[in-house]
Design goal:
- The protein has 400 residues and is of the alpha/beta class.
- It contains 14 helices and 14 strands.
- The strands form 3 sheets. A 6-stranded parallel β-sheet has the order 1-11-10-9-12-13, with helices on both faces.
- A hairpin with a 5-residue loop joins strand 2 and strand 3.
- Helix 4 runs parallel beside helix 5 and helix 5 runs parallel beside helix 6.
- The longest helix has 29 residues.
- The protein is globular and about 60 Å long.
Length: 400
């Protein structure tokens, strides 16, 4: 199932880089399309926005009068929400809030020997736009993970865009947005939503920074508006790397790999182990679990095209391999994880031990799930309160 490469081969690094780079190819057709959409939105504002919504989001009823959700609409949609899901969102909100409250940036000041004073302070970004996908990938966790750090930072104006995908809205997403005190929710999606928030229209407020996940068109649009507005990151398809040994539970690891693979056909699932028997067992359970998976076609294609198993006998080379991959999610699923944890420097989020599945980080643990992908964990970090703060140095010199 998973392609196998061995770390003791001469061309191991070049082989690994080739496989990792396969997902990174850019699409010039997407870039040119996005450029045209952004130009049109900047010039024709709401008229262009409505046109693209009808074309791409299949929103036949969208008009200048109903781009925004009214309070009555929000309340009507929220009434459809299952009470258990509402409780789950409340629990997740509390846990995510408590974690991010620890991230507040302290100010400092000092005076030098000439009585010159220097200080460093921060204040929140004024307007933030949050993009939340619609359709199959519509999750309230996307709202919580992007809004809560902004709330903790002190952002006063949070706006949200979420596509209707045929006039259907996820009540959990709307409830999460209301809980996060989102100022306005727009029934728009895709590149047109990013452009509208970046440059503003009569209906859609212009923001200072745009955050949130999306498809290739959304990512391309964020990339092109960057500089006119801030963005969180250019996020690629989801990915996971799992470190396993003979003590690992291969059926559990298979489930964790599938949990990423079912996100997208371009998701990547990697296992690194010093035990070939464990790798073979994981492959067996992958095939067994895929048989009953509702999204088996997506997961199977992802695992076939980008899935990888790496046999590494040497601890030093294992750590070097992980740091080279720089995965979005890293699970250390071995008997003694402390032995290698201290040497891991490149990873978005690290899950230690068999009872720390990556999926709990996506929804409930507390740390943020907006993480660097495609090797960018080498130089960047997950979304945090710091992303919504501007830092300033204040300098006051004396005459001397």
């Amino acid at each position: 199932m998973l392609k196998l490469i061995k770390a003791n081969q001469k061309n191991f690094i070049s082989k690994l880089n080739f496989i990792l780079d396969k997902r990174k190819s850019e699409n010039p057709n997407i870039d040119s399309t996005i450029k045209f959409i952004i130009k049109d939105i900047k010039k024709n504002k709401d008229i262009a926005l409505i046109k693209y919504e009808k074309k791409f989001s299949k929103s036949k009823n969208i008009s200048l009068n109903n781009i925004k959700f009214t309070d009555a609409e929000k309340n009507k949609i929220i009434k459809k929400l299952d009470k258990k899901i509402k409780t789950s969102i409340d629990i997740a909100y509390s846990r995510i809030l408590n974690f991010h409250k620890k991230q507040k940036l302290p100010s400092f000041s000092f005076t030098d020997q000439f009585k010159n004073s220097f200080s460093y302070k921060s204040n929140a970004i004024n307007r933030v736009g949050v993009y939340v996908p619609g359709g199959l990938a519509s999750y309230p966790s996307s709202v919580l993970m992007n809004c809560i750090p902004a709330i903790v930072a002190g952002v006063k104006n949070i706006y949200m865009a979420t596509p209707s995908m045929g006039s259907n809205y996820n009540p959990a997403v709307i409830y999460a947005a209301k809980k996060c005190k989102v100022k306005e929710i727009y029934k728009i999606g895709g590149a047109q939503a990013i452009a509208a928030m970046a440059y503003g229209t009569k209906t859609v407020s212009k923001v200072d920074k745009i955050v949130g996940p999306g498809n290739a068109y959304v990512a391309a649009a964020k990339k092109q508006v960057f500089g006119d507005v801030g963005i969180d990151m250019i996020a690629g398809p989801s990915e996971i790397t799992v470190i396993a040994d003979k003590w690992s539970k291969p059926d559990w690891i298979a489930a964790d790999l599938i949990a990423q693979a079912e996100h997208d056909v371009n998701s990547q699932s990697i296992v690194i182990s010093d035990n070939i028997k464990t790798i073979n067992q994981i492959n067996y359970f992958l095939l067994e679990q895929l048989k009953v998976l509702p999204k088996k076609k997506i997961a199977y294609k992802s695992l076939k095209n980008f899935g990888l198993s790496i046999l590494v006998k040497n601890k030093k080379l294992l750590v070097e391999t992980v740091n080279l991959i720089a995965p979005e999610h890293l699970e250390i699923f071995i008997k003694n994880p402390k032995k290698i944890l201290k040497d891991i420097s490149n990873a978005g989020s690290i899950f230690v031990g068999q009872y720390s599945p990556e999926a709990i980080g996506d929804y409930l643990a507390g740390p943020n799930h907006v993480l660097p992908t495609s090797g960018t964990a080498r130089f960047s970090s997950g979304l945090s309160v710091y992303d919504f703060l501007k830092r300033h140095s204040v300098i006051k010199m004396t005459k001397s």
